[in-house]
Amino acid sequence: MFQRGDAPQxxxxxxxxxxxxxxxxxxxxxxxxxxxxxLLPGRFWCMKVHILNEHxxxxxxxxxxxxxxxxxxxxxxxxxxxxxxxxxxxxxxRAKVTLATCPAKSPNCSGxxxxxxxxxxxxxxxxxxxxxxxxxxxEYSVTVIDRSGANTTGRCIVREYGTV
Length: 164
Description:
Blueprint: H1 6-16, H2 25-37, E1 48-51, E2 57-59, E3 65-72, E4 79-87, E5 97-103, E6 108-110, E7 116-121, E8 124-129, E9 138-146, E10 151-160
Parallel strand pairs: 2-10
Antiparallel strand pairs: 1-3, 3-8, 4-5, 4-9, 6-7, 7-8, 9-10
């Protein structure tokens, strides 16, 4: 049975001291190096992007569709490019259509169509389609790429509003 003071001694002897009674330097160094690796910028933190609209988004044809996404990143990461795209929700032909691509340094960008606009403010990006049509229904995605080339994607479904 362990007594009150035995557990820490057992833990230390089990993990840092070899059976010969000598401290195991390899194991000791591992426990010292691992916390330092966690402090390296941009290596163990993953940038994230979340579309803030409720899922799925229901919209009336002819109205304005506005999707907003929040970008979560650490202070050392720098966003280089943001791309909004759409693909059909179902069906065999799931070809992705790029709606707008924008370098992060530019706060406003035009899309692939005249009625599509994108902007970036601080940690948020917004896609706006001025005259939504049934053909605009599908799975929308926003992909954020950082300077190292790593990317992350947020997704949401947009459907035509139908009466219940």
